[in-house]
Amino acid sequence: MKNKVIQKNQKGVTLVALVITIIVIIILSTVTIDLAFGNNGLIKRAQLAKDMAANSTTAEQEEMNRVMEEFTNIMEEDNEITVPDEPGGDTSKVTPVESADGVTVPVPIGYTASEATGENSVNDGFVIYEGTEVVNDGNVTTAKTTRNQFVWIPVDDISQIANQTSGTDENGRQNYQGKLYDFSTTGATEMSNYGQGTTTYREPDVVPTDDGNAYLTILGLSSSSEFKTQLQEEFNEMIESVDTYGGFYIGRYETGNLVASPNSKPVVVKGNNSISSVNWYYMYQNSKLIGANSNVVSTMIWGSMWDRALIWLTETGDKTYSDLMNSSSWGNYSNSTGAAATNSGSKQLTGTNDAWQANNIYDLAGNVYDWTIEAGNTSARVCRGGYYNFIGSGCPASIRGIGSPSQTGSSYGSRSALFVALNSD
């Protein structure tokens, strides 16, 4: 009997232990579930931590975006570090080249941008050479005397050089006339009482008492009215190109190899002496032959182009308006001063004296007068820049001289310009 009692007690203890174990497990399970899924459970806390991390990342990204936006704004406001926009136009005709001072210049295909010291900054005179061979410090001396050269003149807005007039030409282009300026020691202001419809300074236009039959043969035209139509078309094309590409190129030197014969190609190189003694008509007509290929149009310079080049010199800080009104310190005159006095007082080869240049453009002041296409009255064309046998204050870079386009004086030469050709319709 004793053994049976013992066995019964053992069975009772085992059952109680089982019940207690189950209760403990239930309690532990409840606690575990609450820890995991309760309001302050592990899963809830993990999700909260994840959300906090995401919010923190979003806030950091927003702050980073704000900082980058402010930095971009600062860059756009600082001209020294702004990356310029690509120029407009046809990239089959030009190659966009970034200058040393961060300006993108449209270099016509068939020309190369100089890599020589002092020739690859727009602010100091961005030079291009005809041909594709690289120009650098090693070969620039030879290139100056053998390859046509031009300097980029930026035009921010076409209203700087032209005013729109009524109608369109035979090519459907808007008609324009040149915007011309009066200069003083304090600045440049648009002329009054000038332009088409007047007999004062104007372009494009004929000079009716001189553009007669004797010279139409040189131009390959049959009448003065046909010549007037041609000039308007040529001016409109130039303006549209300048508007599209943001500027034009001016001849680095006075036009050379001038010959009194049609279809004789001039040059724009250093060291040329054939820069005068040919009438205006040959200079005008033959200037069209200077361009290297169909990607460009070469022309005798227009008066509005000349004015823009002078104003640009003051914008870059190379010259002041006082220098434009008295050019004896940087031109070939009878009273040249300082370094400009060397070899002065007589006609010289193009590019003779480095003191006679401004932003890589030689002899804008002095040496020989440079004919332009601008008309002066009913019988004259306008010549600019003064000449060697006069004083720098009497014939400065800004002067507008006038003369008969039929004359062939030794003090009258020309300057060419270049712009990117437009697409054919």
In short, what is this structure?
By secondary structure, this protein is of the alpha+beta class.
Number of strands: 18
The secondary-structure class comes to alpha+beta
Query: How far apart are the termini?
Result: 127 Å
Strand-residue fraction? 15-25%
Write a structural description:
By secondary structure, this protein is α+β, with helices and mostly antiparallel strands. The chain has 8 helices and 18 strands. The protein has a 6-stranded antiparallel sheet. Strands 16-15-14-17 form a 4-stranded mixed sheet, sandwiched between helices. Strands 1-2 form a two-stranded antiparallel ribbon. It starts with a helix and ends in a 5-residue tail after the last strand.
Task: Present the secondary structure layout.
Elements: H1 2-37, H2 42-77, E1 94-98, E2 104-108, E3 111-113, E4 127-130, H3 140-146, E5 149-154, E6 162-168, E7 174-178, E8 181-184, E9 187-190, H4 213-219, H5 224-245, E10 247-251, H6 280-287, E11 296-300, H7 303-316, H8 321-325, E12 357-358, E13 361-362, E14 369-375, E15 381-384, E16 400-403, E17 412-414, E18 416-420
Parallel strand pairs: 14-17
Antiparallel strand pairs: 1-2, 3-4, 4-5, 5-10, 6-7, 8-9, 10-18, 11-18, 12-13, 14-15, 15-16
Overview features:
425 residues; alpha+beta; six-stranded antiparallel beta sheet; four-stranded mixed beta sheet; 8 helices; 32% helix; globular; disordered N terminus
